[in-house]
Amino acid sequence: MSTSTRPWRAEPPRGRGPVVSASPSSAGAAHTLVEDAQGIAFGTVMAAVGVSLLTHLGLITGQTAGLAVLASYLTGLPFGAVFFVINLPFYCLGWKRMGAGFTAKTFLAVAALSVLSMLVPRWLDFGHVDSVFGAVLFGLCSGAGLLALFRHGASLGGVGIVAILIQDRTGFRAGWTQLGFDALLFAVALLLLDLRTVALSALGAVVLNLVIAINHRRDRYMAY
């Protein structure tokens, strides 16, 4: 396993290195500023809708967002504020290991989600939502959002930064790393929440991480 600290940037495809797609004609073509902006905007909006659905159902999720949701439930503080603060320590790792570009995009994505998580409930009001379907829909929405962020050189911070770093260095899928962290988080949640709530929350997290694990392929895509 390489221990180099190369910055997070586009490189010509070689060996096991990632490419933009399976098509040789598109390999190595960097995203434009407009493409990055729309990708990050799409990702954060989808994630914000997912979080709004999650909190409407009274569920939790995994990764750093899961810690923020759980802390929000326990303290009464807004999810957005807690999520933003929890992510602060991870930016140093992102800066050192993945470069300024990745860290700046991730900071913007986290800040945008923190704000949107407070605005979306004013714009979108959920009525009755079946809890099982809602958990699955959360996983699909948030998974799509994270995929967009990953492919445009960003994440939602925290465990996502660590997961992408591990995938970049070892080839071990980011989704599987996040799934392992989620297992620990839900084990703790069992001490605080009822079994049904934790089980439905775990279903949403599994769907989310499967979307990432199956679709975010280092040998097919590169985040810029």
From TrEMBL:
InterPro entries: UPF0750_membrane, YitT. One of its GO terms (cellular component) is plasma membrane. Its main location: membrane. Signal peptide: none annotated. It holds the Pfam family YitT_membrane. The keyword Membrane applies. Keywords: Cell membrane, Membrane, Transmembrane, Transmembrane helix. It is a multi-pass membrane protein. It is found in: Cell membrane. Residues 1-24 are annotated as: Disordered. The chain crosses the membrane at residues 40-59, 65-90, 102-120, 132-150, 171-192, 198-215. This is YitT family protein. It comes from Rubellimicrobium rubrum.
